[in-house]
């Protein structure tokens, strides 16, 4: 099963109050409305598992594959852990709410779910002067809580300008928000816990404000905010330039720039691959697969060697 084949995945699409149409115009996805904010492109999360598009498991979900065919991911026999990672593309046609996510310990003890949420963003596109919220200016927890209670958001929130190709690492406990005009590829722990801190007093179609989670936010926010340091390295493999964006406890993420041909060996339990620009051909044994922007796949544990040929950019990750 999938011995010489990648597992291609179809995204699950989610409408959001801040979403737009770029998931259709830029990536060709069949969006459900003009306010589509998220494509869960590599997901085994029960809130939106990706559908397998090829092979013996075609039509099943990645969650099914993880539960029923753990050997594809080098999952140890008898292990009941959940699929560890989730990859999304987000189209911020408007500002996202300011939010924070808990760590594993808090998620398990308070929410009863296996994973907290550490995440990272590769900026696929950003309008001029686009910015996001990353962290806050409070020096002590008392000061932080006082500013939240008083709604002193302009004073509290730390804003950062970003451009296409930037990378942002967002550990759990970091106050953050993606700003208007930004499209990102997000690699994260497989978690859907979000504590909303501030939502610009927006209302939905029925005039209702979205729920805030201030008490939980106060409990899990890192104070003071300290920017996470990431060490990035660059290596070349044939005509492929690999930039390691982050390597830490939950995931390692790379940007690959292919300008010709490369042969690679797979040393990981499984490899998650997203084509974010261009076209390429993937060769495994005697099989070839056409790749283009907006495609996402997993190289399962059975694949040792593969070849890529073309002009393309990829975001790649593994545990």
TrEMBL record:
<feature type="domain" description="Phosphomannose isomerase type I catalytic">
    <location>
        <begin position="8"/>
        <end position="108"/>
    </location>
</feature>
<dbReference type="GO" id="GO:0004476">
    <property type="term" value="F:mannose-6-phosphate isomerase activity"/>
</dbReference>
<dbReference type="InterPro" id="IPR046457">
    <property type="entry name" value="PMI_typeI_cat"/>
</dbReference>
<dbReference type="InterPro" id="IPR014628">
    <property type="entry name" value="Man6P_isomerase_Firm_short"/>
</dbReference>
<dbReference type="GO" id="GO:0005975">
    <property type="term" value="P:carbohydrate metabolic process"/>
</dbReference>
<dbReference type="InterPro" id="IPR011051">
    <property type="entry name" value="RmlC_Cupin_sf"/>
</dbReference>
<dbReference type="InterPro" id="IPR051804">
    <property type="entry name" value="Carb_Metab_Reg_Kinase/Isom"/>
</dbReference>
<keyword id="KW-0413">Isomerase</keyword>
<feature type="active site">
    <location>
        <position position="196"/>
    </location>
</feature>
<feature type="binding site">
    <location>
        <position position="119"/>
    </location>
    <ligand>
        <name>Zn(2+)</name>
    </ligand>
</feature>
<dbReference type="Pfam" id="PF21621">
    <property type="entry name" value="MPI_cupin_dom"/>
</dbReference>
<comment type="similarity">
    <text>Belongs to the mannose-6-phosphate isomerase type 1 family.</text>
</comment>
<protein>
    <recommendedName>
        <fullName>Mannose-6-phosphate isomerase</fullName>
        <ecNumber>5.3.1.8</ecNumber>
    </recommendedName>
</protein>
<dbReference type="InterPro" id="IPR001250">
    <property type="entry name" value="Man6P_Isoase-1"/>
</dbReference>
<feature type="binding site">
    <location>
        <position position="101"/>
    </location>
    <ligand>
        <name>Zn(2+)</name>
    </ligand>
</feature>
<dbReference type="GO" id="GO:0008270">
    <property type="term" value="F:zinc ion binding"/>
</dbReference>
<feature type="binding site">
    <location>
        <position position="176"/>
    </location>
    <ligand>
        <name>Zn(2+)</name>
    </ligand>
</feature>
<keyword id="KW-0862">Zinc</keyword>
<dbReference type="InterPro" id="IPR049071">
    <property type="entry name" value="MPI_cupin_dom"/>
</dbReference>
<feature type="domain" description="Mannose-6-phosphate isomerase cupin">
    <location>
        <begin position="242"/>
        <end position="319"/>
    </location>
</feature>
<dbReference type="InterPro" id="IPR014710">
    <property type="entry name" value="RmlC-like_jellyroll"/>
</dbReference>
<dbReference type="Pfam" id="PF20511">
    <property type="entry name" value="PMI_typeI_cat"/>
</dbReference>
<keyword id="KW-0479">Metal-binding</keyword>
């Amino acid at each position: 099963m999938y011995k010489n084949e990648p597992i291609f995945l179809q995204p699950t699409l989610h409408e959001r109050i801040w979403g737009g149409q770029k998931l259709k115009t830029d990536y060709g996805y069949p969006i459900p409305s003009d306010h589509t904010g998220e494509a869960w492109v590599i997901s085994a999360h029960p809130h939106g598992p990706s559908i397998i598009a090829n092979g013996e498991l075609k039509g099943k979900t990645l969650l099914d594959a993880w539960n029923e065919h753990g050997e594809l991911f080098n999952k140890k026999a008898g292990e009941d852990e959940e699929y560890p990672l989730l990859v999304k593309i987000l189209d911020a046609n408007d500002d996202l709410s300011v939010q924070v996510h808990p760590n594993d310990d808090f998620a398990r003890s308070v929410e009863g779910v296996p994973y907290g949420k550490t995440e990272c963003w590769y900026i696929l596109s950003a309008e001029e002067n686009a910015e996001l919220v990353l962290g806050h200016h409070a020096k002590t927890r008392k000061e932080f809580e006082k500013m939240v209670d008083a709604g002193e958001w302009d004073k509290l929130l730390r804003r950062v300008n970003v451009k296409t190709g930037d990378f942002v690492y967002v550990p759990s406990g970091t106050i953050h928000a993606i700003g208007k005009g930004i499209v990102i590829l997000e690699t994260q722990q497989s978690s859907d816990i979000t504590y909303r801190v501030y939502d610009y007093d927006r209302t939905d179609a029925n005039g209702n404000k979205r729920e805030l989670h201030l008490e939980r936010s106060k409990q899990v926010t890192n104070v003071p905010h300290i920017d996470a340091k990431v060490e990035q390295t660059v290596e070349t493999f044939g005509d492929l330039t690999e930039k390691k964006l982050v390597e830490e406890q939950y995931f390692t993420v790379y940007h690959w720039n292919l300008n010709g041909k490369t042969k690679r060996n797979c040393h990981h339990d499984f490899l998650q691959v997203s084509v974010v620009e261009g076209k390429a051909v993937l060769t495994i044994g005697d099989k070839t697969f056409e790749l283009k922007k907006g495609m996402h796949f997993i190289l399962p544990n059975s694949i040792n060697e593969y070849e890529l040929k073309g002009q393309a950019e990829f975001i790649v990750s593994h545990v």
